[in-house]
Specification:
The protein is built from eight helices and four strands; from the N terminus they run αβαβαβαααβαα. It is of the alpha/beta class. It has a single domain, classed as TIM Barrel (Alpha-Beta Barrel). It has a four-stranded parallel β-sheet with strand order 1-2-3-4. The relative contact order is 0.15. The protein binds NADP nicotinamide-adenine-dinucleotide phosphate (NAP).
Length: 150
């Protein structure tokens, strides 16, 4: 990948699925270009805070895959009582609350959808903000629980 960058074929390099700080360090220490992003499973039940803080020293930003829990898992997050009550308070959907949480937590969320209404809804998260107390309530949902097993 570094040879491709030197040849001008790509501008930046990203990594995916590094969950242990030591593994990330090993790769960074063996290479020259710092990763622009680290794409890991990240959502309210698996917030990846330790990795997010660890990679910050390299200027690497966390990108959240399964930002809504992933296909087959979204209802577990959407029906979470904390998430749904914050959603009701703002007149927003649970999906929008989760995406707004990612934004305010400093994560790059990449929600997947094949539904035009959902895609539109997922963009409508810039006209409100979560309070510090709501952010803390969402932070408190972390269970270090992944939905995927890789
Ligand atoms: N690097 C990796 O190892 C890795 C692993 C997995 C995924 N990814 C990437 O991560 C991205 C997201 O993955 P994902 O799509 O599986 O996870 P996701 O975004 O957490 O979940 C997608 C599910 O959420 C639903 N959804 C999206 N917006 C919604 C809304 N506003 N209201 C209700 N439901 C909504 C979708 O259904 P509808 O289609 O009905 O909207 C779909 O079932 C993709 O680009 C994927 O390629 C990367």
């Amino acid at each position: 990948m570094e040879r491709a960058a030197a040849a001008g074929k790509l501008r930046s390099i990203g990594l995916s699925n590094f969950y242990e700080p030591a593994d990330f360090d090993r790769l960074v220490n063996a290479t020259t270009i710092k990763p622009a992003i680290l794409q890991n499973e990240t959502h309210p039940y698996h917030q990846s805070k330790e990795m997010q803080q660890h990679i910050d020293q390299y200027g690497t930003v966390l990108e959240s895959w399964f930002p809504l829990g992933g296909r087959g898992n979204t209802q577990k997050l959407f029906n979470d009582s904390t998430i749904s009550s914050i959603a009701a308070a703002h007149g927003k959907s649970s999906a929008q609350i989760i995406l707004r949480w990612h934004l305010q937590a400093g994560n790059i969320a990449i929600p997947g959808s094949s539904n035009e209404t959902h895609i539109q809804e997922n963009f409508e998260i810039f006209d409100f903000s979560l309070t510090d107390e709501e952010m803390q309530q969402l932070t408190d949902l972390d269970k270090n629980q992944r939905f995927a097993d890789y």
